[in-house]
Amino acid sequence: KQEVTQIPAALSVPEGENLVLNCSFTDSAIYNLQWFRQDPGKGLTSLLLIQSSQREQTSGRLNASLDKSSGRSTLYIAASQPGDSATYLCAVLITDKLIFGTGTRLQVFP
Amino acid sequence: EAGVAQSPRYKIIEKRQSVAFWCNPISGHATLYWYQQILGQGPKLLIQFQNNGVVDDSQLPKDRFSAERLKGVDSTLKIQPAKLEDSAVYLCASSLDLGLLRTEAFFGQGTRLTVV
Q1: What is the model's pLDDT at position B99?
Q2: φ, ψ (nearest 5 deg) of residue A64
Q3: Are the Cβ atoms of B107 and A91 closer than 8 angstroms?
Q4: What does the pLDDT look like over A9-42, one tens digit per residue?
Q5: Would you give per-residue pLDDT tens digits along chain B (116 residues)?
Q6: 3-state secondary structure string, chain A?
Q7: In chain B, at which residue ranges do the beta strands (DSSP E only) sit?
Q8: Residue B12, CB half-sphere, CA atoms under 13 Å: how many?
Q9: Which residues are bridge partners to A91 per DSSP?
Q10: Number of Cβ pairs < 8 A linking chain A and chain B
Q11: SS3 B65
């Protein structure tokens, strides 16, 4: 059974710091991995999608890496801003199921 | 491109009542998911459709939950009768999925259900 774990569960940092959020999964036979952002009371916004054949994807200040063999992905946020405050979720697609981690709740204070 | 549409946004019902949620996926997307997200947890898959066929409903409490996707487009999720523990946000998502290529999943805003 695929399990997805995210560490840390919560993170509070001052504005301007570079951050690393971690996601680990137990079964490496994944099709892809997706990072999402969720604001309080809202749905999920897709940030980055990494196909299983890829090693990383970048979008603006965000960079996501994937190491299938070790079952890990990291989301790197450069020069964090208060507007980045949200919950970040990773999800793996395996045998047509999209399975989520429990998320990292990020707060960036001015 | 229009996103995934869900309605209603909020619903408050008493336990043992019935409730239905509606989802309109992105046009042309073959795969449709319904997730339940309890406060403080990650989304849990309830049911997944590929066009109008069910791919996975192993975590759907079938004694009270039902879902359908008529004509492979819109979908409804129903709870009858509701329990207090059904209070959660119900998220709908869709993805294009071209053959072996698994594409990005897009989510709606969700329906927040409170059972009192």
Answers
A1: 60
A2: -115, 135
A3: no
A4: 999 999 999 999 999 999 888 889 999 999 988 8
A5: 579 999 999 999 999 999 999 999 999 898 999 999 998 889 999 999 988 899 889 999 999 999 999 888 999 999 999 999 999 999 999 988 766 566 788 999 999 999 99
A6: CCCEEEECCEEEEECCCCEEEEEEECCCCCCEEEEEEECCCCCEEEEEEEECCCCEEEECCEEEEEECCCCEEEEEECCCCHHHCEEEEEEEEECCEEEECCCEEEEEEC
A7: 5-7, 10-13, 19-24, 31-37, 44-50, 53-56, 65-68, 75-79, 88-95, 105-107, 111-115
A8: 1
A9: A34, A100
A10: 56
A11: strand
CB-CB neighbors (< 8 A) of B31 in chain A: 96
| Residues with Cβ within 8 Å of residue B53, at least 6 apart in sequence | none
Could you say which residues from 45 to 84 on chain B have a Cβ atom under 8 Å away from some Cβ of chain A? 45, 48, 50, 55-56
Interchain pair A46, B104: CB under 8 A: yes
CB A88 within 8 A of CB A103: yes
Whether residue B105 and residue A42 make contact (CB cut-off 8 A), yes or no, is no
B106 contacts on A by Cβ (under 8 Å): 46
The CA distance from A106 to A11, in Å, is 5
The answer on pLDDT for A95 being more than 80 is: no
Q: What angle do CA B43, B46, B47 make, to 5 degrees?
A: 125
Distance CA A73, CA A52 (A): 11
